[in-house]
């Protein structure tokens, strides 16, 4: 797990297998297995992840298998998802597009395979199959 909790501004491209907890301002794209954005978290960029838990803010396009917009969450942009959970006090300013297949980039699949010690699958990956296996 990678935990980023600071009052600084981070810029760049983050790629990580496993869980990332973000509680700071991040400008750039994020590609990871699971992303938790805390109340003080703000992402200005695109996110691709298997699981997303948001209490903070996102401005950008999201591609995620499972999305939980929790109390206080704010997302401005399109949200491509398989499963969406939306709290009554969460805001989505964009389009929620449900899909049964989520094409995870080879970069993430290869990184997860190395982390898990097994060969990686080719995409498109079936989110439904991944949810049952996980």
Describe the fold and architecture.
By secondary structure, the protein is mainly beta. It has one domain. 13% of the residues lie in helices and 51% in strands. The chain has a seven-stranded parallel sheet with strand order 1-3-5-7-9-11-13. The longest helix is centred in the last third of the chain and has 11 residues. The radius of gyration is 14 Å and the shape is globular.
Quick structural gist:
The chain has helices at residues 106-116, 127-133, and strands spanning 2-4, 9-11, 14-22, 25-27, 30-37, 42-44, 47-54, 57-59, 62-69, 74-76, 79-86, 91-93, 96-98, 101-102, 125-126. The chain has 134 residues and is mainly beta. 27% of the residues are buried.
Please indicate the count of domains: 1
Quaternary state of the chains: single chain
Total helical segments: 2
Largest sheet: 7 strands, parallel
Order of helices and strands: EEEEEEEEEEEEEEHEH
Helix content: 10-25%
The radius of gyration computed from the alpha-carbon positions, rounded to a whole number of angstroms, is 14 Å
Record field, number of beta strands: 15
Low-confidence stretches: 122-129
Mean pLDDT: 85
Strand order of the largest sheet: 1-3-5-7-9-11-13
**What would the principal axes of the Cα set say about the shape?**
globular
Helix/strand/pairing class, anyone? mainly beta
N- to C-terminal distance: 17 Å
> Percent of residues in beta strands?
over 45%
């Amino acid at each position: 797990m990678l935990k980023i909790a600071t009052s600084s501004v981070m810029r760049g491209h983050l790629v990580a297998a496993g869980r990332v907890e973000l509680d700071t301002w991040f400008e750039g794209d994020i590609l990871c297995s699971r992303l938790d954005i805390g109340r003080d978290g703000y992402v200005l960029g695109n996110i691709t992840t298997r699981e997303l838990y948001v209490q903070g803010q996102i401005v950008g396009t999201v591609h995620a298998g499972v999305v939980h917009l929790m109390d206080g969450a704010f997302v401005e942009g399109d949200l491509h998802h398989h499963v969406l959970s939306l709290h009554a006090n969460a805001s989505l300013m964009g389009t929620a597009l449900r899909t049964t297949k989520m094409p995870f980039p080879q970069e993430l699949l290869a990184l997860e395979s190395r982390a898990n010690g097994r060969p990686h699958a080719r995409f498109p990956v079936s989110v439904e199959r991944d949810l049952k296996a996980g």
